[in-house]
Amino acid sequence: MTDDTVTWRYRAFPDLGVSLTEVGAQGWHLLDGDFHLPVVALRATALERNLELMRDYCARHDVLIAPHAKTTMSPALVERQLAGGAWGITVANVQQARIFIAAGVRRLLIANPVVGPADLAYLAARRRADPDLDVLLLVDSVEAVSVLADRARDDSAGLRPQPVLVELGYAGGRGGVRSIDDGVRVARAVGDADGLELVGVAGFEGLVPGADLVERRRNAAEFLEWSASVVSELVDRGLLSAQGALVSFGGSSYFDLVVARFREAWSGGRVEVVLRSGCYLTHDHGLYERTSPFVGHDPAPLPALEVWAEVLSRPEPGLAILGAGRRDVSTDADLPQPCAIRRDGRTWPAEGLQVTAVNDQHAMVSVPEDVSLEVGDLVCLGISHPCTTFDKWRLIPVVTDTYEVIDAVRTYF
Questions:
Q1: Band of the pLDDT at 1, cuts 50, 70, 90?
Q2: Per-residue pLDDT averaged across 233-260, rounded?
Q3: In angstroms, rounded to a whole number, what is the distance separating the alpha carbons of residues 210 and 268?
Q4: DSSP string of 370-384?
Q5: CA 169, CA 171: separation in Å to the nearest integer?
Q6: Where is the D-serine dehydratase-like domain (predicted)?
Q7: Is-cis flag, bond preceding 38, omega within 30?
């Protein structure tokens, strides 16, 4: 998936018809006139730091990770995660799975029920073509089990049983059974179905509600405690193995709580804990800078993703207009955070600047009287929640700390 040619179709990049594999050999500099702005960038040293942090954390705590690839939708970045020891990857749906299967990924967890005819037909065809392909599916109802079982009878003759995890949820949340009895009922339906195999449970604690981080962490811990009771019940009833069952939770904010409950405090046999954090790879300047368990770690995680924009106008005192908006940078969790100013090849911290509003193509920035900011200056925007910046860019330059372009990665949203 590296046979593309870089042309005007990839915004911001020079239109020179360069092969994607040759981007790093062009001697381009991101901020000195080679690229059109606004432009996104991935900092290579931050990516490596964050990969090492998660790799070492998983090894230290004896857990596995299947990073959620919907964060980046980039086979090149997923390849780095797998090379760094990832057990597999997570995707949200079959459309995402198709991309990574085409890229050569052999183990995927689809973190939602799959019920569509085209989706199930595709998975059955891929499993027939590649019997070693390992795709794990979630179910949270007897009806979803019935759909999978019907398809297994029709399409899975001669194949290994389809591995399935019971999805656990909480009141007001998204998918997942809401009671132990429902969990038992769904697990029993899987066990009774030909062609399916119950291999564990999964859930997602990352969106638990709460007034502040302390309350959200407490609620996440309570959900995981309840989830542990479901696992124990399934083991006690003989529906799930006490040895080697998969227990998969873990967004990018509370994965330490998953480790604490299912590795450090677990006494019900040896389960395999599979984290599904995705945003650890790039960290950020906002949401995960506040909530990641790695914050305060030594070494600390580094924000790897940023967007640079030009100052287009200083229309009135205290106000600057940047040429980047909702089409360019995440705004769903927090507004972008000005991090640096660049002028004439010199860069310094953007102290006192604050984005106050954005529209499609512009950001309004409050500028203190004592801060020098001129038309044509470049401003680095730190982002919050990297997922929704990645999905705005099809090709992202990878840069050194001094902004030499050394690579580029495709996204497939």
A1: confident
A2: 96
A3: 30
A4: T----TT-EEEEE-S
A5: 7
A6: 304-400
A7: yes
Q: What are phi and psi of 227, to 5 degrees?
A: -60, -40
d(CA 319, CA 322): 10
Give the percent of the chain with pLDDT over 70: 99
Query: What token pair was written down for 89?
Result: 């990857």
Amino acid at 280: Y
For residues 396 and 386, what is the distance between their CA atoms, to the nearest angstrom?
13
Question: 252, 226 in Cβ contact below 8 A?
Answer: no
| Beta-bridge partner residues of 108 | 89, 135
Chain centroid to Cα 115, Å, comes to 23
Closest CA to 94 of 83, 102, 85, 86: 102
High-pLDDT (> 90) share of the chain, %: 95
- Residues 6 or more apart whose CB falls under 8 angstroms from that of 18 comprise 5, 6, 26
Amino acid at 324: A
Strands (DSSP E) found in 140-213:
162-168, 196-203
Strand partners, 313: 321
CB neighbourhood size of 174 (10 A)? 11
Q: For residue 413, what is the enclosing H or E element?
A: none
The Cα-based distances of 69 to 74, 92, 99, 239 in angstroms read 7, 8, 10, 30
CA geometry: angle at 127 spanning 125 and 128, to 5°?
A: 65
In angstroms, the Cα distances linking 123 to 26, 93, 170, 372 are: 41, 11, 29, 57
Return the number of other C-beta atoms located less than 10 Å from residue 2's C-beta. 11
pLDDT above 90 (res 214)? yes
d(CA 396, CA 353): 26
Average pLDDT, the chain: 96
DSSP 8-state secondary structure symbol assigned to residue 54:
H
